[in-house]
Design the sequence.
């Protein structure tokens, strides 16, 4: 019976829905995480009679067609790129972006990745790096005798050095933005890479139009809303159960039909 196959596509879709929701909930405390949102589309339809087809020799037409769908499919699990809350950390190299930009991160193999996670620190050479030791571009080195570090909203890094009355400028942290940031591909570790859908990165700095500003001593929380995710989880569970009941009902109908023929 076709209903069983159709309902099975619904169960598979809701299974993936629950997987997306579970990933969101698991990352509720992940810095800079952007929640995923699943989208569905209906599958092809089989038409038995099309709307507007002739119903008699007098040119009368059917006002509505007769067609049956074949189920549902998952079409995307895109990111919701809304701003997360900013929380203070009291760590001088922690940075939060208030706006649309991304940090540019240089990987050990030379690739460029992008991130909203500003959990930065210094490596053994004094370079500003991520928690995994990846270089934050453009590669700023802090002198080992610096007494204090300040990073302004534009990303300019300044250090106070012994014997100096004015801070020394060390460089400016780069930001990038994308025409379609939802098209970025997640590779884990709070990192994204560009795709054909995202478009090429547009370089800039904090304070530039569309790039946002930086806030030192803060980090951006993930934008997951636990209440919303739990509500979605309940809805997905109910949808899964309804599809399973369709399969049960269709199986019972087939059994009844079989028994009639046997009788």
Sequence:
């Amino acid at each position: 019976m076709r209903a069983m196959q159709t309902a099975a596509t619904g169960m598979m879709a809701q299974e993936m829905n629950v997987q997306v929701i579970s990933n969101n909930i698991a990352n509720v405390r992940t810095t800079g995480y952007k929640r995923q949102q699943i989208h569905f589309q209906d599958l092809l339809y089989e038409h038995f009679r099309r709307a507007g087809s002739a119903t008699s020799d007098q040119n009368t037409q059917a006002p509505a067609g007769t067609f049956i769908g074949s189920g549902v499919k998952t079409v995307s699990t895109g990111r919701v790129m809304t701003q997360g809350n900013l929380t203070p950390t009291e760590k001088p190299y922690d940075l939060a972006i208030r706006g649309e930009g991304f940090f540019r991160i240089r990987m050990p193999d030379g690739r460029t990745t992008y991130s909203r996670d500003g959990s930065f620190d210094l490596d053994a050479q004094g370079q500003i790096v991520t928690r995994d030791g990846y270089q934050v571009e453009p590669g700023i080195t802090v002198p080992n005798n610096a007494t204090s570090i300040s990073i302004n909203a534009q990303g300019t890094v300044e250090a106070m050095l012994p014997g100096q009355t004015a801070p020394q400028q060390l460089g400016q942290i780069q930001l990038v933005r994308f025409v379609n940031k939802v098209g970025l591909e997640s590779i884990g570790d709070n990192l994204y890479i560009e795709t054909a859908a995202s478009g090429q990165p547009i370089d800039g700095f904090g304070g530039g139009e569309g790039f946002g500003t930086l806030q030192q001593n803060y980090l951006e929380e993930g934008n997951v809303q636990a209440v919303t995710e739990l509500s979605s989880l309940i809805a997905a569970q109910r949808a899964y159960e309804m599809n399973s009941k369709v399969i049960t009902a269709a199986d019972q109908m087939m059994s009844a039909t079989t028994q009639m023929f046997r009788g």
About this structure: The first strand starts at residue 36 and ends at 42.
